[in-house]
Design brief:
By secondary structure, the chain is α+β, with helices and mostly antiparallel strands. The chain has 8 helices and 17 strands. The protein has helices at about 15-20, 65, 90-105, 110-125, 205-220, 265-275, 290-295, 335-345, and strands at about 35-40, 45-50, 70, 75-80, 85-90, 140-150, 160-170, 180-185, 225, 235-240, 240-245, 250-255, 280-285, 300-305, 310-320, 325, 355-360. The protein binds 2-OXO-4-methylpentanoic acid (COI).
């Protein structure tokens, strides 16, 4: 698919766009266009185009509104010092989008078409890719998504599916920027169970995390950490990002991948960057009671959240019914080193030894 731009006008005036790019926040503003394609069993994917970013017209009977047959992705376009715009491992998002679609009974999109749709949107809306402020992480956040648009109330995989890609200029995900965030450990709610949709990037996982996220906010925390749904003993992941700990022996530890954990592109990049920087990395089950005791004893030196939106965000404190467990008031040294190195690769300031970046 080519996702041709049909020569559409800009929706937003230059001055308005520049004001937005000066302080974009996260997820608040949207570019002028979007990519779109439709799928039906007889035609497969068709009608691909770049169209104006505009409200959708949906039947109130569209299956997605009733049975949540939907998947999405999140990746970013980075503007480099020379003005060029680059993507970071978009094929990894494309492969995960296929796995998510497969799990939700949606049609798979070729990875090449996934990347073509994103690049076509970025070319149409190039003026919306922010130039990062000094030391900043501004980028164009790209949100591809696919949903069951067929008006049908029977419960089966839909026969009409729509795919869109929208763009949103973004700064830091957390209002506090790179300052350490506080994490609430919920024992009340689970995010995903074995054999469920935890590894798929589908809206339902996020919807079911919201009540726990509210519980976190009521306890003064900005994110929630879920334990596994079975034993409730092991750390799995945060509401919208993966979690890492740094132990006293300079080992970077994170829960192993499973069908109840999102296979984060940033997570896998962090593991590789840490190894490149000479750190030992360990993917193993993390018993919550043990890790909290280790934090209390000073044997866990640093902790951070990571994801496309969050990049690498230091964690300052974990809170639970058992009390507060302080990791540190400032971002840890290793956390900052990993964060800066990852951002340097993404913005072309460090050598991309793994071939992760791709110019649009
Ligand atoms: C991302 O990091 O891209 C996500 O989809 C997570 C969400 C919290 C914005």
């Amino acid at each position: 698919m080519k996702f041709d731009d049909k020569g559409l006008a800009e929706r937003c005036a230059d001055a308005e766009r520049e004001a937005i790019l000066a302080d974009p926040g996260f997820g608040l503003h949207f570019t002028d266009h979007m990519a779109h394609a439709r799928w039906t069993p007889d035609k497969g994917w068709h009608d691909d185009a770049i169209v104006p970013h505009a409200p959708l017209t949906l039947s109130p009977a569209s299956a997605v509104l009733h049975y949540a047959q939907e998947v999405f992705e999140g990746l970013k376009a980075y503007r480099r010092a020379d003005g060029s715009v680059w993507l970071f491992r978009p094929e990894k998002n494309g492969e995960r989008f296929q796995r998510s679609a497969q799990r939700l009974g949606l049609p798979e999109l070729d990875v090449d078409d996934f990347i073509a749709s994103i690049e076509a949107l970025i070319r149409a809306d190039a003026a919306w890719v922010p130039t990062p402020h000094d030391g900043g992480e501004e980028s164009l956040y790209i949100r591809p998504f696919m949903f069951a648009s067929e008006p049908f109330l029977g419960v089966r995989a839909a026969h009409e599916v729509d795919y869109y890609v929208i763009g949103s200029p973004a700064g830091a995900y957390f209002a506090s920027g790179v300052a350490p965030v506080s994490i609430w450990i919920t024992k009340t709610y689970s995010r995903a169970g074995a054999g469920g949709t935890g590894a798929a990037k589908c809206g339902g996982n996020y919807a079911s995390s919201l009540i726990a996220q509210q519980e976190a906010a009521e306890n003064g925390c900005s994110q929630v950490l879920f334990a596994d749904a079975g034993s409730k003993q092991h750390a799995e992941e945060l509401g919208g990002m993966n979690v890492f700990f740094l132990d006293a022996d300079d080992r970077l530890v994170t829960p192993p991948l499973s069908d109840s954990i999102l296979h984060g592109v940033t997570r896998s990049s962090v593991l590789q960057v840490a190894a490149d920087l000479g750190m030992e990395t360990v993917e193993r089950p993390i018993v919550l009671d043990e890790v909290l005791q280790e934090i209390r004893d000073g044997r866990i030196r640093e902790a951070f959240a990571c994801g496309t939106a969050a990049v690498i965000t230091p964690i300052g404190v974990f809170k639970s019914d058992a009390g507060e467990f302080h990791v540190g008031d400032d971002a840890g040294e290793r956390t900052l080193q990993l964060r800066n190195h990852l951002l340097d690769i993404q913005y072309g300031r460090a050598e991309d030894t793994h071939g992760w970046t791709r110019q649009v």
